[in-house]
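Quick one from the shared queue. A colleague (R.T.) flagged UDP-N-acetylenolpyruvoylglucosamine reductase as missing a structural entry in our internal table.

Convert sequence to structure tokens.
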Amino acid sequence: MQALNTFGLPAVAEYYTEIHAADQLKQLEQWLKHHPMPLLLLGGGSNLVLADRVPGLVARIMIRGWQLSDLPGDHVRLRVGAGENWHATVERSIRQGLYGLENLALIPGTVGAAPVQNIGAYGVELKDRISAVEVFDRHEHRQRDLTPEACRFGYRDSLFKSSEPERYVITAVEFCLARQFTAEVSYAGLRDGLGDGPVTSERVFDTVCRIRRTKLPDPLDIGNAGSFFKNPVVSVEKYEQLKHRFQNLVAYADTGGYKLAAGWLIDQCGLKGFALDRAGVFAQQALVLVNLGAAHREDIEHLSMHVQKVVQERFGVILEPEPRFYP
Ligand SMILES: Cc1cc2nc3c(=O)[nH]c(=O)nc-3n(C[C@H](O)[C@H](O)[C@H](O)COP(=O)(O)OP(=O)(O)OC[C@H]3O[C@@H](n4cnc5c(N)ncnc54)[C@H](O)[C@@H]3O)c2cc1C
């Protein structure tokens, strides 16, 4: 599976299959009933840290599909198969004059994995743009639609990640998009990048792609899983203590407290460019851990634990990894 995970970790699956249509999932469940074993659903492998040996069955979701229906007014419903590439979907929607996804350009992976951690970037989260998630329910053995409320989306979190991680296979995602473009440029970095001139969907898309290319390593060149740690949310009291000690602390008000910039915390500990075994903290962006060549899961895990320990000792804040370690 080395080519199927963006860290480029040399994982070998015990069993492997590919799902091209939602109705294959019933057969898959039948097979698992007779051969009980763990199941890992795989999209583009861009949010996974895999062990050398992956026990059980890996099922790569490759369901295609693009279905458009008009809504009253300026809006449309767009249902896209879970196996479609995320960035290609964003690009295609804009080309068809369907607006709303441009801030989420260039995020690697599949459409089906996007709700799992409620992907977000440049002021937009997936939850802001979807009307339903189509799933195969492994408990009820049937396909159905979940409303956005039922998905319990949070910051890099959802029902699919936290509360019921094994229950649903996402088969399609339904977006609610607009035929009239409304810019979302609350994120300062994006506003600065746009500069002067009319803000069009194409310009937002191009600017997001340009900024991302300068900030993040391309997994084809250097193995990585994007931002490795979530930005930790702390209480107002904790924030005030930290702000007193570290006057240039980077933080944003968030529900119930403050969200701290995890990259800033790591950078302040002098860890940018730090290497441990075959893994390193990316020299241009402290939030990204990279495969320095021939890394295994243990290398990523040891480095992740080291970063957590150093940040906790200095700031008393616990960093939580964003990718899933499997198994
Ligand atoms: C360079 C880089 C930049 C990134 N930038 C961002 C960013 O800006 N914002 C952001 O939020 N994330 C970012 N990511 C993380 C990652 O791209 C997203 O989390 C993406 O949605 C993962 O998609 P995937 O198809 O690769 O999922 P995978 O890594 O294959 O799977 C991730 C999880 O979803 C589950 N899963 C996959 N498909 C399904 C399905 N059909 N049904 C149910 N469960 C499923 C898997 O079992 C696993 O638990 C970045 C990653 C990289 C490498």
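The chain has two domains: 66-215, 224-326.
Residues 66-215 form a domain with the Uridine Diphospho-n-acetylenolpyruvylglucosamine Reductase; domain 3 fold (CATH 3.30.465.10).
Added to the table.
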